[in-house]
Amino acid sequence: MPGGDMAKPLLGRRNMESNPDLTPAVGRTIGILGSGDFARSLATRLVYSGFQVVVGSRNPKRCAGLFPSAAEVTAQVDVAKKTDVIFVAVFREHYSTLCDLTDVLAGKILVDVSNNTEINHHKESNAEYLASLFPACTVVKGFNVISAWTLQSGPRDGNKQVLICCDNQEAKRIVAEIAQVMGFTPVDMGSLSSACEIENIPLRLLPAWKIPVFLALGLFLCFYTYNFIRQVLHPYIWEQKNKFYKIPVEVVNSTLPCVAYVMLSLVYLPGVLAASFQLHYGTKYRRFPDWLDQWLQHRKQIGLLSFFCAALHALYSLCLPMRRSHRYQLINAAIKQVMEKKTDAWIEEEVWRMEIYVSLGIMALGLLSLLAITSLPSIANSLNWREFSFIQSTVGFIALVVSTLHTLTFGWTRAFDENQYKFYLPPSYTLTLLVPCTVILAKIFFRLPCIHGRLRRIRNGWEKGSCGPTQTMPHIVEERLLTRVSGGLEELHPATEDAITWLDD
Ligand SMILES: Cc1cc2nc3c(=O)[nH]c(=O)nc-3n(C[C@H](O)[C@H](O)[C@H](O)COP(=O)(O)OP(=O)(O)OC[C@H]3O[C@@H](n4cnc5c(N)ncnc54)[C@H](O)[C@@H]3O)c2cc1C
Ligand SMILES: NC(=O)C1=CN([C@@H]2O[C@H](COP(=O)(O)OP(=O)(O)OC[C@H]3O[C@@H](n4cnc5c(N)ncnc54)[C@H](OP(=O)(O)O)[C@@H]3O)[C@@H](O)[C@H]2O)C=CC1
Ligand code: HEM
Ligand SMILES: [Cu+2]
Ligand SMILES: [Fe+3]
After folding, report:
1. Nearest residue CA, atom 11 of ligand 2?
2. Which one, 163, 422, 477, 500, has the greatest CB density within 10 A?
3. One GO biological process from the UniProt record (predicted)?
């Protein structure tokens, strides 16, 4: 395989120099069983990270040409004889075909890199299955969250974390070192029984987006239908006017901002509900209902989708005046004006209304861009927790308020105009205002001195009818941590973070 990107200096080299403890790992001979996509990328990365590589194939002659020349491609048995650390880059279904090697493999470290195609498809994890086939070996689970593609393009792109688990500390340390020299960040996930969890992670990445995407599509469909009825169907049925040209741009540009705005308010609603629960329970150590926990964990995705819709809305709005339909309407209006011998169509109030709502819209989008930028991991990592939560929580809420002002100035007095009620349906902006205004009012309510003081005490660990945190704490922390791990790699819920600091104390 040609060097290309791989030949450039690696992060791994730098790690190695700055950490002299890692040097023994380099020069070590690493074995790979299997000659597929993963094996090839792994071999290439290992060779360029300074390791000796031996690849074991059932048919070494056929696939030798696909590997870098520095890697030795040989029979499976030879790999087992030559190395102590062996990556098993073979599908689970074929593990049993390796059983001929049981004797030569005894005492070696086997790294299981396999993934499943479905969550909990098999009773035990692949790694535990491998360990049961080779009881004389030490099995380490790892690297399955790294795709062959990421191995090739280098750890600069994509996820740098390699989750590792194993029952033997020494074996785990060796594999972690290898990962580090290759430029990845090893993460210790504990004993081999965590393998099931690690194997399910690549399958769980998408579900974090599934609910938010369906939510966005559902809202889009509802609002689109609503706007279509009001803007296209109503004039067609009532006045026999053909307004179907509005379908691709105008109806879409009435729908997108509604979706963006409602989704933005749905990012801040669960926080309000959480605060209400805490006030109601009189403690922060009681678990939220599952649906609220789920909702709190999906806020990032909901927020980013809201930003996406808002950005599209801005682009559509910019393009409104350059459409042919708009030009014809302008000309027609001008002709009508001439026939009526009017010279000036300037309406001061309308002018001001538009100047203000466009300006507010731009500001809201600017604030949302800040939130979107800080959700990039590299930017988030350069902020401390307080800075990050100020931008996400406070600036985001200001964006919601500015969006509300934008919507209100856009709508102006149309909510009170009878002609605006098509089929008794009010203008869409009045509907979108419901949830956001509830959220804003609730936030203001929680700011009232008496309520705020109580909330702050609750969040500092005070409980109704007791002094200080109770015995149940560690259990709840454990529960929260578990939901966090199973929900993917989200930020800690603030309550959990507090509880952990409390435990550390
Ligand atoms: C464009 C965009 C990008 C986004 N990117 C991200 C992102 O990258 N990561 C992310 O997490 N979110 C992201 N979000 C979602 C959102 O900005 C955050 O979830 C934000 O923190 C929500 O603010 P909040 O004030 O409602 O909630 P929080 O500040 O989380 O507070 C929610 C509730 O938690 C409880 N609480 C708060 N503090 C404490 C405490 N100290 N002790 C106990 N309980 C407490 C309270 O009940 C509170 O009401 C994004 C949103 C948008 C629009
Ligand atoms: N591709 C990827 O991005 C990722 C893959 N993985 C995991 O890595 C492992 C390998 O994946 P990948 O390289 O894509 O798969 P491939 O199908 O490309 O390669 C599998 C290899 O297994 C070897 N093998 C050994 N015994 C058998 C057998 N009895 N029947 C068939 N093949 C056998 C073959 O090599 P030979 O003929 O030389 O013996 C074959 O090349 C899997 O467990 C996968 O889950 C994990 C993360 C990412
Ligand atoms: C550059 C930024 C923005 C510009 C230029 C802009 C411009 C506009 C324009 C021109 C309209 C009127 C559309 C029409 O005539 O049908 C409008 C409506 C609206 N905008 Fe924006 N906007 C911006 C950002 C935002 C943001 C960030 C939000 C909220 C997240 C938002 C929410 C709304 C809503 C809810 C409506 C009412 C839609 C309706 O009910 O028809 N806008 N905006
Ligand atoms: Cu499983
Ligand atoms: Fe299977």
Report:
1. 38
2. 163
3. iron ion transport
Q: How far is the CA of 38 from the centre of ligand 2 (A)?
A: 7
**Cα distance between residue 471 and residue 227, in whole Å:** 55
| d(C-alpha 96, C-alpha 134), whole Å | 10
Average pLDDT, the chain: 85
- Do 46 and 67 form a contact (C-beta atoms < 8 A)? no
Instruction: Give the pLDDT confidence of 2-43 residue by residue, as tens digits.
Output: 434 443 334 433 343 444 454 566 778 999 999 999 999 999
371 within ligand 1 shell (Cβ under 6 A): yes
Q: Please state, in angstroms and rounded to a whole number, the distance separating the CA atoms of residues 278 and 461.
A: 11
Residue 131: name the closest of 186, 162, 163, 88 by CA: 88
4-204: CATH number: 3.40.50.720
Q: Which of 44, 76, 37, 47 is nearest to 60 (CA)?
A: 76
CATH 3.40.50.720 positions along the chain are: 4-204
Q: Is 107 left (phi over 0), alpha (psi -120 to 50) or beta?
A: left
Q: What is the ipTM of this complex?
A: 0.76
